[in-house]
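Students often ask why inverse folding is considered easier than folding. One informal answer: many sequences map to the same fold, so there is more than one right answer. In these notes we will look at a single instance of the problem. The structure comes first.
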């Protein structure tokens, strides 16, 4: 639905007060020759600002409910004609596009620079449909984006970021699966007394060690002294698929989210009583119960960046 409260309170305006430190975004955009003005979009605002949930996108367009770059099956691609999606999260990527057509940055704790990472979505000649998570359960289509490598955050730039931003990254890297690369590099640096090579890191990753003993404080120290750096990619809007957004609006008008599946996990009698886990619904069928107003509720943040 068109979330007027988000629009009127300015969250959808190009306001970078909650983003990276001043100059970080602009410097990289200028270096890449990317204009700071948003891409011109002619679609009416009441259609352009209709957002969608991840489970809706998964049902209609494929992919899972968690990945930043969800793999799309051949079946879904054949059905929709869409293969490449990106769902940046403003919690870890505060300078991702916040209004349709706006440029932005994507950050990733890869241990190496964006060029060294050699990510497929940055090296292949295809663009991605970007839907930014503006709020819980609230993903808005920003446009078609070219994602290209940029300079990693320098030690000085990292130190210039807000404590809140630094804490978010370090806390997540200490706990999440996508923080394994950083934890592995820090652990190997302790063991070897130097930076680990690509091969040494790859060998450790194959051993499937989690290195959960590496704390958020350990990670903060590594970033503060320059041992670890966040890789950066620029995000340039190169087009806007009006038909795609119109299709989202048409499909979501009567759509009601399916109830979450409940999986009961019962422990043995000697242990505590049974527990219930809520899991993400992966219903394949499209449910169309009676029409009602679509509301935006909370959603767990992505397991990936």
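Output (designed amino acids):
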């Amino acid at each position: 639905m068109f979330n007027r409260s988000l629009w009127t309170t300015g969250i959808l305006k190009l306001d970078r007060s909650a983003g990276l430190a001043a100059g970080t975004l602009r410097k990289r955009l200028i270096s890449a020759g990317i204009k700071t003005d948003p891409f011109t979009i002619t679609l009416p605002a009441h259609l352009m600002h209709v957002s969608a949930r991840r489970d809706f996108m998964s049902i209609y367009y494929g992919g899972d409910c968690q990945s930043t770059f969800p793999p799309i099956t051949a079946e879904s691609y054949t059905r929709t004609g869409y293969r490449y999606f990106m769902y940046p999260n403003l919690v870890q990527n505060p300078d991702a596009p916040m209004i349709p057509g706006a440029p932005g940055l994507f950050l990733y704790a890869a241990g190496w620079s964006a060029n060294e990472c050699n990510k497929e979505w940055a090296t292949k000649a295809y663009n991605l449909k970007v839907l930014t998570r503006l709020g819980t359960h609230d993903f808005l289509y920003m446009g078609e984006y070219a994602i290209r490598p940029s300079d990693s955050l320098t030690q000085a730039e990292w130190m210039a970021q807000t404590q809140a931003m630094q804490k978010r990254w370090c806390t997540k890297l200490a706990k999440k699966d996508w923080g394994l690369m950083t934890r592995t590099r820090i652990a190997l640096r302790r063991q070897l007394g130097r930076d680990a090579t690509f091969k040494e890191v790859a060998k450790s990753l194959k051993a499937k060690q989690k290195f959960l003993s590496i704390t958020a404080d350990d990670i903060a120290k590594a970033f503060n002294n320059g041992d670890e750096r966040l890789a950066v990619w620029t995000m340039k809007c190169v087009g806007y698929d009006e038909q795609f957004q119109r299709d989202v609006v048409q499909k979501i008008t009567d759509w009601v989210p399916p109830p979450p599946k409940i999986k009961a996990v019962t422990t043995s009698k000697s242990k505590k009583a049974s527990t219930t886990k809520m899991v993400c619904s992966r219903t394949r069928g499209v449910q169309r119960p009676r029409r009602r107003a679509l509301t935006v509720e909370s959603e767990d943040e992505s397991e990936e960046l």
